[in-house]
Automatic annotation (TrEMBL), chain A:
NDH-1 is composed of 14 different subunits. Subunits NuoA, H, J, K, L, M, N constitute the membrane sector of the complex. It comes from Chromohalobacter sarecensis. It is found in: Cell membrane; Membrane. Its main location: membrane. Its EC number is 7.1.1.-. The lineage of its organism: Bacteria, Pseudomonadati, Pseudomonadota, Gammaproteobacteria, Oceanospirillales. The chain crosses the membrane at residues 12-32, 81-101, 113-133, 154-174, 186-206, 242-262, 268-288, 300-323. Belongs to the complex I subunit 1 family. This is NADH-quinone oxidoreductase subunit H.
UniProtKB/TrEMBL annotation, chain B:
GO terms for molecular function: NADH dehydrogenase (quinone) (non-electrogenic) activity. It comes from Chromohalobacter sarecensis. This is NADH-quinone oxidoreductase subunit J. It comes from the Bacteria. Its main location: membrane.
């Protein structure tokens, strides 16, 4: 086998890694649709789906079959191009962000030195999914949902970046691997606690999760931007939301909780365990909190979170300058 | 790298043509977004990933969202598309085409005179290098830009608040109170009203 050179092997292994991470992310998103309902049932003292298979685990198969065989209907008043494009953007931009997350010392798709910025870019593009989806539906509820979503996401993206700049300043790099390496001794959640809090809030807001799900509030907007969608196109929005949860949880773990670092257990177990805890936290938030009013959400973002991140960045910068060995 | 550069450059040019000739405003905006992403790819190919990422985050991810947001709210239909195609007659093309032709000529002459091949395979600039440049030799420009942005922010905040809204707010807060005490309260409520209106303008 003369063609099986070390280079080919490296390429094949990289491809294999990328595929495993991609499929893993999608499957985790799909599995979450079932896990979330079971957890909600547990925390709200009811059953949740428990009929199909042991503990209801096959519910996900039943849901999949239903989504796949439903009529994929495009309303005649919709703008076809945008209507089809929107769910693809929703799914693709989130899945691409998994590229920069280092899972273990040897696993991870791309080692970009602007890794964190790549995530911001993808989060920025993700807004278009909701905007285009809501506008192209030709439905006023969908348009209202899209407008709420874009205003909310824009406001929270302002400080999702600022909240992480403290981490970047302490690690001295945008590279995710170097950020994880900088947390060998102390996890960044300790020195960057306010950064952690604001990033958590912003992460929930950017994925439109409860309690920041005004864009799709069913009581007011009949489901917001994806009200006209059906079948697998709706499924992509739906799974995309769960992929977003997994993504934000994985990012929190990587940036604030030391990534794969941890005693005794192998790195991959630590990473998955920490991510699962945060995914559970997301579900717990949905189970426990009521939905605030829309203007309350906006003013909380601009009046509380933004000043908090700015002060956090200022203090972090000052402390780094004071304690830096070169003396500035 | 060179292939990536030329491919994304071709996409950028074609997408920008799509923006200019497009009749449907939202479709034209989609072309503009594609064009901005293609320009970001050009930056990546030139070895400036920081500039490329910022191009996507700032232009494609924030500014264009506001464009799309506004155009969507206008609810432009078939009439707007017809108006657009009425505007895009050959006569209208003449002036801009001549002017851009001159610019293209200048660009081509410069490019032929310069050594292009060496420029494309530049070294990769890190974010740190960009930051050191910005806060070193170009510090004064950064500070001036910051002041300009602050001025724009203050102006937007001032323009965004409406007198009518403030009045309505103050009146609604104090229904039918005529005493001096009530008036004092009205004034304090009024300042609260100012707060909420400036918050609305910052949205």
């Amino acid at each position: 086998m003369s063609w099986w050179t070390p280079q080919v092997e490296a390429i094949a292994f990289a491809l294999f890694q990328a595929l495993v991470i991609l499929i893993g992310a999608v499957l985790a998103g799909a599995l979450l649709t079932m896990v979330e309902r079971r957890l909600l049932g547990l925390w709200q003292d009811r059953h949740g789906p428990n009929r199909v298979g042991p503990f209801g685990v096959l519910q996900i198969l039943a849901d999949m079959l239903k989504i796949l065989f439903k009529e994929d209907w495009i309303p005649p008043f919709a703008d076809r191009t945008f209507f089809v494009l929107a769910p693809a953007i929703a799914m693709a931009s989130l899945l691409l962000s998994f590229m920069v997350i280092p899972i273990t010392p040897s696993w991870g798709v791309a080692d970009l030195h602007i890794g964190l910025l790549f995530f911001f870019a993808m989060a920025g593009i993700n807004v278009y999914a909701v905007l285009f989806g809501g506008w192209s539906s030709g439905n006023k509820y969908a348009l209202l949902g899209a407008m709420r979503a874009s205003a909310q996401t824009l406001s929270y993206e302002v400080f999702i970046g600022l909240s992480l700049m403290g981490v970047v300043a302490m690690a001295g790099s945008f590279n995710m691997r170097e950020i994880v390496a900088a947390q060998e001794t102390v996890w960044f959640i300790v020195p960057q606690f306010f950064g952690f809090c604001t990033f958590l809030v912003a992460g929930i807001a950017v994925t439109h999760r409860h309690p920041f799900d005004q864009p799709e509030a069913e009581q007011e907007l009949a489901d917001g931007y994806h009200v006209e969608y059906s079948g697998m196109k709706w499924g992509m929005f739906f799974i995309g939301e769960y992929v977003g949860i997994v993504l934000v949880s994985a990012l929190i773990v990587t940036l604030f909780l030391g990534g794969w670092h941890g005693p005794w257990l192998p790195p991959i177990v630590w990473f998955l365990l920490k991510t699962a805890v945060f995914v559970g936290f997301f579900v717990l938030l949905r189970a426990a909190l009521p939905r605030p009013r829309y203007d309350a959400v906006m003013s909380f973002g601009w009046k509380v979170c933004l000043p908090l991140t700015l002060i956090n960045l200022l203090v972090t910068g000052a402390l780094i300058l004071v304690f830096s060995p070169a003396g500035g | 790298m060179e292939i990536a550069f030329y491919l994304s450059a071709v996409v950028a040019v074609l997408a920008t043509l799509g923006v200019v000739t497009g009749r449907h405003p939202v479709h034209a905006l989609l072309y503009l977004i594609v064009s901005l992403i293609a320009v970001a790819m050009v930056f990546f190919a030139l070895g400036a990933p920081f500039a490329g990422a910022l191009e996507i985050i700032v232009y494609a991810g924030a500014i264009m969202v506001l464009f799309v947001f506004v155009v969507m709210m206008l609810n432009l239909g078939e009439a707007a598309a017809q108006q657009e195609s009425a505007w895009l007659r050959p006569r209208t093309w003449l002036g801009p085409a001549v002017l851009s032709g001159i610019l293209l000529l200048v660009l081509l002459v410069t490019l032929i005179g310069a050594d292009v091949g060496g420029r494309i395979q530049g070294d990769t600039l890190t974010a740190k290098a960009v930051g050191t440049l910005l806060f070193g030799p170009y510090l004064i420009v950064v500070e001036l830009a910051a002041m300009l942005l602050l001025a724009a922010l203050v102006a937007a905040s001032h323009l965004g608040r409406s007198e009518a809204h403030d009045e309505a707010h103050a009146v609604r807060q104090v229904p039918g109170k005529r005493t001096a005490d009530g008036r004092g309260r009205a004034a304090s409520e009024r300042s609260l009203g100012d707060d909420t209106s400036s918050e609305e303008s910052s949205r």
